Amino acid sequence: MMRRTTLLTGCTALALALGATACGGGPVTPAGGGDKALAGQTVTVAGVWTGSEQKNFQKVLDAFSAKTGAKTQFVSTGDNVSTVVGSKIEGGNAPDVVMVPQVGVLQQFAQKGWLQPLSTTARQTIGADFASVWKNYGSVDGTLYGLYFKAAHKSTVWYSPDALAQAGVEPPKTYDEMLKAGHTVSDSGLAAFAVAGQDGWTLTDWFENIYLSQAGPEKYDALAAHKLKWTDASVVKALTTLGKLFKDKQLIAGGQKEALNTDFPGSVEKVFGPEPKAGMVYEGDFVAGVAHDQFGRTIGQDANFFAFPAVDGGSAPVVSGGDAAVVLKDGKNAKAGMKLLEYLATPEAAAVWAKAGGFLSPNKKLDLASYGDDVTRATAKSLVAAGDSVRFDMSDQAPAAFGGTKGAGEWKLLQDFLGDPSDPKATADRLEAAAAKAYQG
């Protein structure tokens, strides 16, 4: 899913926040057969990606085809991957591989008996080349079903250096400083933030960064597992903090109404497009891919980031996400699908998208030289070095009905909150009611 580094100071801040260490390349492990062993077979892959992400993933699939002789077909599911894949399975038209953007959906698929456990080759590669956190998130009841091919660093705020320079502000270190800097940017002629409220998942990411920093990792983990209710005072406090931004018409480009009609690519365009309307846009590292591919921005020069700042004296948050490849039992070509997954586990496959941009890999063996710019290289290095200390996107850990369905659950309730942030407690009550129902189901 679209969920994803800068003045050198911004890059350094992120690296320090994650405790960056060196990580190097390694030998390419042959996978999927190098002798055209899959010639004549077609592997169908379903995933949420569209636009530049779909285009760049197709380059990876093309490399697999060149290596194995297999043809590939990508089917975009839109955000409702759970519903679409379920319908395809029921209709006898299941894809072979699904790129699952949420831990909760992966768990749901496994519990329904839809998934094939990963092959010995895939398990060995993941065990050797990935931090254990990625193996844990890809497993259900001790069985490994998912390979996290694409990771996201979701604690980055992207900005136009020209906009901040014109306003005379530096990248902030705290949330309050960020809002203050936003007002200064607004006074100089641009809105502070472009907010992609049309896509509910972006709003969950805003909440998660605030909550992790403000409430701390233990409560974050408890809320993610619904061992802590959404009516807890810590949730109301985080919503109040987020609402302070949402209700400030000086900070959001076009105000709340326009934000609710702005999708993620549109929010990036408002900052990095030909007619800028805002100075900053919060989202993950994948903002860089859109800014470069669609709007010709040079990352590190006219598109930069700073780490999502600390809230109320807490630690700066480090939220991650990712897309896991799984193999469906009911796919017409599941064996070839497993060969694709084995290929995706290699640094060779990751290097294809790394070179194209807008991509981070959790694979420790991927040579950092594969990335096309220093900003992305530093982000990838710090994410890999963070190992098991990062926190996975909370909404992606929830059942899809609550954390991953367009027009429902957390996505819809936070969109409602963006439209009217006047009553954080009432929103917390609604979130708890929706969560209780989804987790019980």
Automatic annotation (TrEMBL):
What family does the Swiss-Prot or TrEMBL record give for this protein?
A: Belongs to the bacterial solute-binding protein 1 family.
| Pfam (any one) | SBP_bac_1
Determine if Metal-binding is one of this entry's keywords. Answer: no
Organism for this UniProt entry? Streptomyces lannensis
Q: What is this protein called?
A: ABC transporter substrate-binding protein
Question: Does the record bear Signal in its keywords?
Answer: yes
Kindly give the SUPFAM superfamilies that the UniProt entry links to this protein. Periplasmic binding protein-like II
The highest taxon in the source lineage is Bacteria
Q: Which Gene3D superfamilies match?
A: Periplasmic binding protein-like II
